[in-house]
């Protein structure tokens, strides 16, 4: 084995280890209460998507999609096995709502990051942009999937008509969606900086 082959093999192993850590984090956050969201008296602020966003930033779009898929699958399994509400049982139990948006989010986000990096490569700015954009994308894609694939079930659960549905979804984007995006914009640069420091130390050794 040549030195280049040995380096390539070692690099793939390191990438696989990092990916495994992110997937493990997603599983823990999906199943352990309050490790993936911040409950407040008014709203429940989800931040589990930050793990997917950081994975996309640090490891790349392929790994980001894999971590996002792991999140979606865990959400889907939870909805099937331990549904906490009618929405879990009747809406999130559909893979097109639970899994597809979480696969698409890091894929689209990776493209947006490339565009943003052509303007600024400052890690904090990149992290804040990725956090806000990824979080908002997640909200938009999940709600879009509900509107496309589980519209009737969602309207029945919420007791609204077609007009009420769009008002309800718009209200979710304007409240939870924006708030979660700002939380992700704060958290993502912090965790992204940590991963960059870890990568730097690894290169030094």
Rounded Rg: 18 Å
Taken from the alpha-carbon principal axes, the silhouette is globular
Structural class: mainly alpha
End-to-end Cα distance, whole Å, is: 22 Å
Low-confidence stretches: none
User: How many helices does DSSP assign?
Assistant: 9
Strand element count: 2
Helix content: over 70%
Major β-sheet profile: 2 strands, antiparallel
Largest sheet, spatial ordering of strands: 1-2
**Order of SSEs:** HEEHHHHHHHH
| Approximate strand percentage | under 5%
What is the residue-mean pLDDT, rounded to a whole number?
90
List keywords for this structure.
mainly alpha, globular, 205 residues, single chain, 9 helices, two-stranded antiparallel ribbon
Short description:
This protein has 205 residues and is an all-alpha fold. Helix content is 81%, strand content 3%.
Q: What's the layout of helices and strands?
A:
Layout (H helix, E strand, L loop, with lengths): L2 H29 L5 E3 L4 E3 L2 H11 L1 H21 L4 H5 L4 H4 L1 H18 L5 H27 L1 H8 L3 H43 L1
Antiparallel strand pairs: 1-2
Helix pairs in contact: 1-2, 1-3, 2-3, 2-6, 2-7, 2-9, 3-6, 6-7, 7-9
């Amino acid at each position: 084995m040549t030195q280049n082959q040995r380096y390539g093999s070692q690099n793939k192993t390191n990438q696989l280890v990092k990916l495994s850590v992110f997937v493990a984090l997603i599983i823990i956050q999906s199943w352990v209460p309050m490790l993936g969201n911040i409950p407040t008296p008014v709203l429940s602020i989800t931040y589990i998507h930050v793990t997917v966003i950081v994975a996309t930033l640090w490891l790349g779009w392929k790994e980001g999609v894999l971590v996002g898929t792991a999140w979606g699958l865990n959400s889907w399994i939870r909805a099937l096995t331990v549904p906490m509400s009618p929405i879990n049982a009747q809406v999130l139990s559909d893979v097109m709502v639970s899994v597809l948006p979480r696969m698409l989010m890091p894929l689209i986000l990776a493209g947006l990051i490339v565009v943003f990096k052509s303007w600024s490569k400052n890690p904090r700015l990149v992290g804040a942009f990725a956090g806000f954009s990824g979080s908002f994308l997640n909200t938009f894609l999940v709600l879009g999937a509900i509107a496309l694939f589980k519209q009737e079930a969602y309207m029945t659960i919420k007791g609204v008509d077609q007009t009420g549905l769009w008002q309800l979804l718009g209200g979710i984007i304007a409240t939870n969606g924006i708030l979660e995006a700002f939380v992700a914009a704060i958290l993502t640069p912090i965790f992204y900086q940590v991963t960059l420091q870890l990568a730097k130390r690894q290169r030094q050794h």
